[in-house]
Write a structure and sequence with these properties.
Blueprint: E1 2-12, H1 20-30, H2 35-38, E2 53-58, E3 61-67, H3 69-77, E4 83-86, E5 89-104, E6 106-120, H4 125-133, H5 138-157, E7 168-179, E8 182-196, E9 214-216, H6 217-224
Antiparallel strand pairs: 1-3, 1-5, 2-3, 4-5, 6-8, 6-9, 7-8
Length: 225
C-alpha cells in the first residue's frame, strides 16, 4: 500500500528544549478549523483514530509529520507559520523545510530494522502489571506482541488489511518519561519486523505528541557516516 508522507521541519533561531505536546498545542490553537490537527470534536468529545498529524521535537528541532489527509492539511497551512509557540516561549522560524514523498506500507518478504528515536509508550495499565510480573526472558516476548498489535491497529486505521503473519523481534530498554505530568515507562531500542514502515512514523500511545518515533536503521547509519 502506498501512503503519502509529508515531513515539515522547522529551523528556529535557537535549539528547543521542549516536547511535542506543546508544539501540538500551538497548532491546535492556531488551526482550530482542522479536526485532524487537534482531534477535538464538539461537546468535549475526541476523535479516536490513529493520528494523521504527529508533532515531534528531535535533537532540538521541531518536526510535524503528516500522513495522507494529514499531509494535505500541512500543505495548506505551510505558508501561515512564521513562528512557533511552546507554552509562553515564542521561537521565530528562520527556515522551513518541507519534504513530500510516497512510501510503501505493509507486509514484506524481507526483515527491516528500525530504531525508536523517541520513547515508545507500549504499556497500558493492564499490560504494565503483566510486564512487571514477567522475568527478563518473557518481557521481550510481551513487547513483541504489543508492537505487532500497534502495527496492526495503525494499518487498519490507514485502510491496510494485514493478511499475513507479522513477525517481530524487539531489543529495548526501559526509560522513565512523563506524559501530562504523569511518570510512565517508555522504551528505547531497536526492532526487526517483516513490515515496511515510513521513517518518522510513531507507534504506540501518544504518537501525536512525538512518542514512539521510528527510523530505519540503514537510513540512520547513512546519516551518521
Amino acid at each position: 500500500m502506498k501512503v503519502k508522507i509529508l515531513v515539515f521541519n522547522f529551523i528556529c533561531e535557537k535549539s528547543i528544549n521542549d516536547k511535542g505536546n506543546k508544539l501540538r498545542g500551538y497548532f491546535a490553537d492556531k488551526f482550530k478549523e482542522y479536526t485532524l490537527i487537534h482531534h477535538h470534536l464538539e461537546n468535549n468529545k475526541f476523535l479516536y483514530k490513529f493520528p494523521l498529524i504527529q508533532y515531534k521535537v528531535l535533537n532540538g528541532k521541531p518536526q510535524v509529520l503528516g500522513i495522507n489527509e494529514g499531509a494535505e492539511i500541512l500543505q495548506k497551512i505551510y505558508e501561515e507559520i512564521e513562528f512557533l509557540k511552546f507554552g509562553d516561549n515564542i521561537y521565530p522560524v528562520k527556515e522551513k523545510q518541507i519534504v513530500f514523498r510516497t512510501e510503501e506500507l505493509g507486509i514484506t518478504n524481507q526483515i527491516n530494522n528500525y530504531k525508536f528515536i523517541t520513547p515508545w509508550l507500549a504499556l497500558n495499565e493492564e499490560n504494565y502489571k503483566k510486564y512487571n510480573s514477567l522475568d527478563s526472558v518473557s518481557r521481550p516476548e510481551l513487547l513483541e506482541k504489543i508492537l505487532i498489535g500497534n502495527i496492526i491497529s495503525m494499518s487498519k486505521s490507514l485502510g491496510y488489511v494485514v493478511e499475513e503473519k507479522i513477525v517481530a523481534k524487539v531489543k529495548a530498554r526501559s526509560t522513565q518519561v512523563s506524559l501530562k505530568s504523569i511518570p510512565m515507562i517508555g522504551f528505547l531500542g531497536t526492532f526487526q519486523v517483516n513490515f515496511h514502515l515510513p521513517d518518522y512514523l510513531g507507534l504506540g500511545k501518544s504518537v501525536s505528541r512525538g512518542f514512539g518515533t521510528i527510523i530505519r536503521l540503514k537510513d540512520l547509519n547513512n546519516k551518521n557516516r
